[in-house]
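pinning this so it doesn't scroll away 📌
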Amino acid sequence: MELISAKRFRKKLQGVDVDLITLKNGSGMQMQVTNYGARVVSLLAPDEHGNLSDVVAGYDDLDAYVQDPYYLGAIIGRCANRIADGKFSLFGKSYQLTLNVGNDHVHGGIFGLHAKVWIMEQLSEREVLLSVGSPDGEEGYPGSVHFEARYLLREDNSVYISLTARSDQPTIVNMTHHSYFILSGFAPSSDTSQNILDHRLKVEADYFTPINGRLLPTGEIRPVAGSALDFRDFHAIGQRIDEKEEQIQFAGGYDHNFVLRDFNNRIIKAATVIEPTSGRQLEVFTNVPGLQLYTANKVSETSGKYGVRFGRYSAFCLETQHFPDAPNHPHFPMIVLMPEHIYRHEIIYRFSLLQDK
């Protein structure tokens, strides 16, 4: 399968040269990363016959990413997900963030990390380091913060992502990675009939944080048992995606945060997805307490790379994170970053074949 042309990404934006680099491991897996939004543009993984397919949604040129409303493949921050009314208080001081989706602040605002041109350094054939700064007051956040994202394509066909942040004053940080996956692969012959409804998902969570009609957490931590959000055992993603259950109706599918079982600040398994036709399996690991499942409910039919059109339910996101709107729910794990501390977030997306298990 041909890789995306790097020439279509080589422009200067925000005074920085944008580029597209390719990482490869010894097993033949390949990943392309651009420093616009620190985004994964393509990820080629083998199926049970050894054929490589691109398993993430994306575009084949930089201009499309600049116009992209869906955060495809991006690093998200300063704060992923939603903050109600864009308001929070920290040590007795109130802050007003940019409102970019209705009356709320979403995914870091208009000029969040997804819209910045990062400095990119390729460390080896399998590893790249990206860094970017955010000045005090940007999007309403306190503190000047330095962010780093490191992608490592491991020999076991896993993608290791390390996210770090340092601030010069107390602030809030909740980063994530926002690739849209389809394990059957995006191929030039595909069309909008492709979807992830037959993918089978298991989430290592007994509880989730319910949402209201604005997709904001209500503050409740509710058992998944007896609901359409019960993925404690494998279920097809599409099996209950049209349920009349209120939580599904609010989101138009899945757009929910799961409370990961056995969270202890160390790397734990968060989820597993299998796609029987290709034989691909994806396992997700992280050291943070939450996992957002999003099934592209709000994605309008869009022209992507290879001429493939994708839309609603065409891909899924598994975004490891702290809980949405955490500053406004004191019983949620806190996301305060102090100057003397370093924010550290680790993510592993490990690909394998069902016959390997």
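📌 and the second one:
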Amino acid sequence: MTQTRELGSPSRRRMLASTGGVVALAGLGGMNRATAAGAQATAAAPAAKPLPEYAKWKNADALIVHSANTIETKRGAFGSSVITPSEHLFVRNNIAPPSLDIVKDPDAWTLEVAGVARPRSFTVAELKTMGLAALPMVLQCSGNGRAWFPSKPSGTQWTVGAAGCVIFTGVPVKAVLEAVGGMSEGMVYMTSTGGEDMPAGLDPKDVMVERSVPVSALEDAILAWELNGQPLSLAHGGPLRIVVPGYTGVNSVKYIKRLAFTKEQSPAKIQQTGYRLAPVGAKGESTQASIWEMPPKSWINTPSDPAQPVKAGRVVISGVAMGGMTAAKTIEVSINGGKDWQPAQFVGPDLGRYAWREFALAVQLEPGTYQLASRSTNAAGESQPEERMENNRGYLNNSWRDHMVTIKVA
């Protein structure tokens, strides 16, 4: 069996971050909150691309359509209520989604479970009788922040908008595993296979969406049929999606049709050479670290548009902070490009270790130009680094300097 390092392992993460209290926001009443309406407004091209048919229900004004399979949330559209509205949530598909017909009768969708004591298939209707869990979590594309890599990696040039904090609802994978007598002996990975239609004339291994993660990831994983209180749409993996909290979005496979516990990682290209931590200029190889766990990260959403001057005086700087595999514990803000830092406050509900936290800091700003940065530290003591971790495909960018914004105060 090929041994592949887990990128998010404690020893690995310590190489990526330096070490750096949930408190209520107090004393900010009556202060002028800098407008977020213009954030990233200039990012949309004059002739904006239309939403694809399967995502027509989304709010086009809140999104940047890069392609039919890549749709980004504008920085100013996250809001400040912790949960990202479904109509504002980004979309990322590795290949074209299946027909909308598959969500007409979601309860009839079938999932095969293999690599267990009693292999069998379940309909979504049957899964709904086996347990229920609601999972607040950050859903984030592996390439979120790719636009700032100087090597210009191929792929969608995401800034911050390939992420959101949502609530998935479904059945715990542990409950399903118990119903089939547990996994077979010696299994190392949990492997999920998507239900997209395979293009004719191609080797399925070259295009199929099938991802393997360590079996330890099943602890909090669920098979979800609902997002933010609504049936899971085709745009987000309906009728059924596996959700692996703390891991990048590609590991939460959409339209899941098969869940297998395996001794080896999937032979699919997306697993063997795709989503690997390859050096700049090199191709992905199965011996390189797989893109699994997310590191701590944060960014400022308001104010964030250099084209929209902020009125001098009291200003509230706000944004979001995540901890990755553990909760975001502290958040700091700098108004001078990282020369000095001061603690900000978490605001709003704490939805658990996998969700992000809203943060805010009230400051007095005189006329001038300011570089605003934020830096999150998680419960394991891991902080955002100043510099990105260079790699060939622009994965896992959590550099606080890259995410910094420049504003003008007048």
